[in-house]
Amino acid sequence: MRIVITGGAGFIGSHLAERLLTSGHDIVIIDNFNDFYSPAVKRRNVAEIAGNADASGKTLLVCEGDIRDGEFVQAIFAQERPDAVIHLAAAAGVRPSIENPLLYEEVNIRGTMNLLQAAKEAGLRLFLFASSSSVYGNNPKVPFAEADPVDHPISPYAATKKAGELICHAYHHLYHINIACLRFFTVYGPRQRPDLAISKFVRLIDQEKPVPFYGDGSTSRDYTYVADIVAGIEGALHWISGGGKRYDVFNLGGSSPVSLNRLLTMIEARLGKKAILERLPMQAGDVERTFADLEKSSSILGYGPATAIEDGISRFIDWYHETKQRCHE
Ligand SMILES: NC(=O)c1ccc[n+]([C@@H]2O[C@H](COP(=O)([O-])OP(=O)(O)OC[C@H]3O[C@@H](n4cnc5c(N)ncnc54)[C@H](O)[C@@H]3O)[C@@H](O)[C@H]2O)c1
After folding, report:
1. Per-residue pLDDT averaged across 32-59, rounded?
2. Ligand 1 within 6 A of CB of 42
3. pTM of the model
4. According to a count of CB atoms within 10 Å of the terminal CB, is the N or C end of the chain lower?
5. What number is the average pLDDT over the span 61-72?
C-alpha cells in the first residue's frame, strides 16, 4: 500500500514509518516540524527513517506542511493517491492544552476534518485515528473498556480527541470510510517526546537537575512500549482492510499500571543516581490513573503488549546514552 502518515516525523510516527517500510509499504509523511519540541529532533528522526527506506527499497516522501491547511492536504492526496491514512499529527499533551486550548481545537478538530474531507474527495477507504486514553477522564471503573462512558473529559486535549472519534464516525457513516480510532495509553521508548515523564525524568536525573514531581506519586499510568503500539497499529490496518463497513474504537495499552513513585525508583536504579525532587501539587487536567482493558483489541486486532516496563525503560536509557554520545561527537 501507499500510506500517508501524518505526524510521521514525531515520536510514534517515526517508529511506525520505519516498521511499515520494512513491511513493504510506500510511505508519505505529512508533518509541519513545529517547535512543540525541537524540530531538529524531528529532522533527525526523518533522516533515520530515510536510511531505513533505502534498505527496504520502498519509497519515502516527506511533505512539509500543516494539516490545518485543507488545500495543502487535498493537493497531496490528489497527487499521491494513497490507499490509507494513519493520522497521528496532533497538538499533544494535556497540560499545554489548558494554556492554549484554541490551538488544540484548530489542529485536532479542524486538522482531522481536513484529512477526512481529503480522504472522501480522493475516494480513500482506509483511515486510522490516534486517540488517547485521556478520553476516559477520571472514570472510577478500571480497567478502562471501550464501552465505558467517555462523556467527562477533564482537559481540552481529551475533549478534542473524543471529538476526533465522533467526526471519524460521521465520515465512516456518510462515505463508507473504514476507520479505527486507537486509544493509546502513555507511550514511551526511544525518541519519546521530551515533555513526557520517562524522558524528562531520565534526562533531569542524569544531569543532576531538579525533577518536577507532581502530587504524592500515587498517580499511575499504563505505560506502553512504542513497538507494541506500532504492532497494534499494524493490526488495526489489517482489520480496516477486511471486507464490509468497519468503524470501531480500540484500546492500545500495556495493561499493567505503574505508580509515579515506582517509575521514579526504577529509573533511579537503572541510572544509578538519586533524583533531586521538586515537589509540586497535582496539575489540573491530569487524570489519577490509566489502565487499559485489552480484551477487545486482543480478540479483534490480535493485539498483545510484549514489553515489560523494566525492559522498556532499559531500552530507553540505552538509547538516551547512545544519542547523548552521538550529539557530543
Ligand atoms: N505519546 C503518547 O503517550 C500518546 C498517548 C496518547 C495519544 N497519543 C497521540 O499519538 C499521536 C502521536 O503522538 P507523539 O507522542 O508521537 O507526538 P509527537 O509530537 O512526537 O508527534 C506528532 C507530530 O505531529 C506533527 N504535527 C503537529 N501538529 C501538526 C500540524 N498542524 N500539521 C502537521 N503536522 C503536525 C508534529 O510536528 C510531530 O512531528 C498524537 O495524535 C497524540 O495525541 C500519544
Report:
1. 93
2. yes
3. 0.98
4. C
5. 98
Q: Which atom of ligand 1 is nearest to the CA of 131?
A: 7
Report the distance separating Cα 216 and Cα 297, nearest Å: 32
Compute the distance from residue 8 Cα to the ligand 1 centre, in Å. Answer: 8
Q: How confident is the model over 287-328, as pLDDT tens digits?
A: 999 999 999 999 999 999 999 999 999 999 999 999 988 777
For ligand 1, the distance from its centroid to the CA atom of residue 274, given in whole angstroms, is 31
Kindly write down the DSSP assignment for every residue of 96-143, as one continuous string: HHHH-HHHHIIIIIIHHHHHHHHHHHTT--EEEEEEEGGGGTT-SSSS
Q: Identify the DSSP state of 24.
A: T
Protein residue with least CA distance to atom 38, ligand 1 = 10
Asked about 157 being catalytic, the answer comes back as: yes
Looking at domain 2-185+225-253+291-305, its CATH architecture is 3-Layer(aba) Sandwich (3.40)
Tell me the three state secondary structure of residue 166: helix
Confirm or reject: Cβ of 320 under 6 Å from ligand 1.
no
